[in-house]
Predict the 3D structure of the following.
Amino acid sequence: MSEPDCPNIAGCRLVNDPGLNIHPDQRQMYLESYCHGYSPGYEACCRFITKKSIFFCPDFVLPDSAMTLDEILDKIESEA
Ligand code: SF4
């Protein structure tokens, strides 16, 4: 059985935007663990969960961010 791919891969800036401020090793770890992997897999990705809830995901949210949705919304508002 092939590894599960996140349905957001084509549009996710963490995967597709080389200008995003993230170390290449860290990006690779996210790709292997979340975007294409089982451990913990895309359903546990904070970016996936955020996009599912509010239909977009800001750049400051990373797959293993420990922020609640309320905290993410507060930060978006404070930066607006
Ligand atoms: S970072 Fe999260 S939302 Fe983006 S492609 Fe990977 S698993 Fe999906």
Observations:
- Residues 13-79 form one domain.
- The radius of gyration is 12 Å.
